[in-house]
Specification:
The protein is mostly beta strands. It contains 1 helix and 18 strands. The chain has a single domain, classed as Jelly Rolls (Sandwich).
């Protein structure tokens, strides 16, 4: 009799395990759909990246891409952006350049070469250091579905300012929530060694929410509150931006150290994943 009872118990455990396995198989998985692992030395892959160039204004003085930054962004200039030993290096340099700018750097964009709605966006990188550095990994809308900034949204996957050592920020900007009116929504996480070691920065973006991660640890979550596109414009394709700024309203708010340059933002890879369709469990 005891053997019969033990046998029934074992069968129940086996069936429960099988059901669990079938349930797990219903969970969608992340599928890699786009990546750059920076395997070929030279300039960044033109099939994946273009450049924003200059100071983002017609007049040379005081523009700085809207943030009063000090750099001139160059294109196809290896001193500022190059692939070397399996890494993308974005380098900010203190040097005279066009339009009387005292610094140069690079801003790479995937617009029209990598544009997505929803997914897991991930980068492994080592960040620059020192007062005046401002590194970012972020996304802007490929088309202004709801109008100019910030109406169509902005997703800042990573921002790092050198004076706030070991602190990483993730933020969104929309009509309702943006930095110009002090209502932006965001989170931060403290992690020692981001300037000397590689770490992984990511978001998971779905139809109803965006979550931010550092090395797999979630540190910020933002949901669609059902208030329409003024609060949630994240329902259309966005593209990637990688840049290293100098100074600016935030990056330079504690001053710019003139003696730390050049500084490097070193990226090991950038990957984009999307969910696979649900699969029926095999019998």
């Amino acid at each position: 009799m005891k053997r019969f009872i033990y046998g029934l118990a074992s069968l129940s455990i086996f069936l429960a395990s099988a059901c669990d396995n079938k349930q797990t198989s219903l969970e969608p998985e992340w599928e890699l759909i786009w990546s750059d692992e920076f395997e070929i030395d030279g300039l960044p892959d033109p099939g994946r990246w273009s450049y924003d160039v200059g100071t983002a204004c017609e007049k040379p003085a005081g523009c700085g891409w809207g943030n009063n930054e000090l750099q001139y962004y160059t294109a196809e200039r290896s001193e500022n952006a190059r692939v070397e030993n399996g890494h993308l290096i974005i380098e900010a340099r203190k040097e005279p350049y066009k339009e009387e700018r005292g610094y140069t750097s690079a801003r790479l964009v995937s617009k029209q070469k990598g544009d997505w709605k929803y997914g897991k966006i991930e980068m492994r990188a080592m960040l620059p250091q020192g007062f005046g550095t401002w590194a970012a990994f972020w996304m802007l809308p490929t088309e202004p579905a709801y109008g100019g900034w910030p109406s169509s949204g902005e997703i800042d996957i990573l921002e790092y300012v050198g004076y706030a050592q070991d602190t990483v920020y993730g933020t969104i900007h929309t009509d309702a929530y943006n930095g110009m009116i002090g209502t932006q929504r965001g989170g931060e996480i403290h992690r020692a060694g981001v300037e000397s070691e590689f770490h992984t920065y990511a978001i998971e973006w779905s139809e109803k929410a965006i979550s931010w991660y550092l090395d797999g640890e979630r540190f910020f979550h933002f949901e669609d509150e059902g208030k329409g596109p003024k609060a949630w414009p994240f329902d259309h394709p966005f593209h990637l931006i990688l840049n290293l700024a100098v100074g600016g309203h935030w990056g330079g708010s504690k001053g710019v150290d003139p003696d730390i340059w050049p500084q490097q933002y070193v990226i090991d890879y950038v990957k984009v994943f999307q969910r696979t369709p649900l699969q029926k469990p095999s019998l």
